[in-house]
Design brief:
The protein has 356 residues and is α/β, with parallel strands linked by helices. The chain is built from ten helices and 13 strands. The chain has a five-stranded mixed beta sheet, sandwiched between helices. A four-stranded antiparallel beta sheet has the order 9-10-13-12, covered by helices on one side. Strand 3, helix 4 and strand 4 form a beta-alpha-beta unit. Helix 3 crosses helix 6. The longest helix is centred in the C-terminal third of the chain and has 24 residues. The relative contact order is 0.17.
């Protein structure tokens, strides 16, 4: 007799960052924004008419799409929104990566890519970064079924210059190239201007980082009108109502307040640069992160040992037990006060750790 388990789809799931719930802690492990959402978001939340929740939301997400279209100066028909950029990326994998050729992405990158490839049974090849954790554009010039990479990369924080992205696009006119810009608002240059030259480019962004709305789950992408039509065809074959009423209203409010957006991301970038100087002084080495985190290794003390010591002090950072990066910590940029506490602890603890 056939066992039902024989028909189960087997995948190796993505492991999200730990979400501790301690009263007093410094949480620097999941790249959340340390500042609250824009004031308009809180105001709209207070004024939300609960009676609207009995109605289905707009399947076209018009209020949010229109706000994004105005902000980025593109037609609404070139924008697709979803439940976080993970939803948008998963839908893009399902829509565009259907070749027998493998898709390409870096070996050190966002660890959901290989999960989606496995879930959707998409062949893939992980392309090694160079010794400085940089993408080499020429490694992506061969035959493939599509390309995806974050810029800045995660977890390294390294930025690929726009000219290098264009080189990849020039050599892959027959493949969809997805640039995952979850961290682009912290000082990197967006690939959005390249959309006017390349109809095979899809640029994905999120509200979870720079717009302080990780708990709301809002993501979007910008591409050609044809690409967005293809994405919507798949979405409507999967779930017509992906965005709820609350997310649509609050997301639109978040986009409207440019002054608050620029101020808070500016504060994060300033704190990042200050933290770089302090970590360098304490013996850490790292690349020039253009994200809201620093990917750092200490010159003498193993990363796992530092990770455990910080954890005992209720300071949470991210540690990856993976080849090539097992001696690195990914440290999210919090408030200046939080980063001072981190530095103060390391300054007092590291000398004794070196003596052991």
């Amino acid at each position: 007799m056939r066992d039902w388990r024989e028909g189960v789809r087997r995948v190796e799931p993505y492991v999200p960052g730990e979400q501790p719930s301690e009263r007093r802690m410094i949480k620097l492990n999941t790249n959340e924004n340390p500042y609250p959402p824009a004031p308009g978001v809180e105001r709209a939340l207070r004024e939300l008419d609960a009676d609207r929740l009995r109605l289905y939301p707009d399947p076209e997400a018009g209020i949010l799409v229109d706000a994004l279209a105005e902000y980025y100066k593109v037609k609404p028909s070139r924008i697709f929104v979803g439940v976080g950029s993970d939803d948008v990326l998963a839908m893009a994998f399902l829509t565009f990566f259907n070749s027998e050729q493998p898709i390409l992405f870096p070996d050190i990158t966002y660890s959901f890519y290989d999960v989606w490839a496995g879930l959707f049974r998409i062949p893939y090849r992980q392309v090694p970064l160079d010794e400085k954790f940089q993408i080499r554009p020429s490694d992506y010039f061969g035959e493939n079924g599509g390309i995806v990479f974050p810029n800045p990369n995660a977890p390294t924080g390294e930025e690929l210059p726009q000219e290098a992205i264009e080189e990849i696009l020039k050599h892959n006119r027959n493949s969809v190239v997805i640039v995952d810009e979850a961290y682009v608002d912290f000082g990197a240059k967006s690939a959005l201007p390249l959309l006017e030259k390349y109809d095979n480019l899809l640029v994905v962004q999120t509200f979870s980082k720079s717009r302080s709305m990780a708990g709301m789950r809002i993501g979007f992408c910008v591409g050609s009108e044809e690409m967005i039509r293809c994405l919507n065809d798949v979405k409507y074959s999967f779930n017509s109502y992906t965005m709820d009423q609350t997310a649509l209203i609050l997301g639109a409010e978040a986009v409207k307040d440019r002054e608050y957006f620029d101020r808070t991301r500016g504060e994060i970038m300033d704190t990042r640069e200050w933290t770089k100087g302090e970590l360098r002084r304490l013996g850490f080495c790292f690349g020039d992160s253009r994200a809201n985190f620093i990917f750092a290794a200490h010159e003498r003390v193993p990363a796992e040992k530092i990770f455990q010591a910080l954890r005992e002090q209720h300071i949470y950072v991210r540690y990856f037990r993976k080849p090539r990066i097992s001696n690195y910590l990914r440290i999210t940029i919090g408030t200046r006060e939080e980063m001072r506490e981190l530095i103060d602890f390391l300054e007092h603890w590291l000398p004794s750790a070196n003596e052991e």
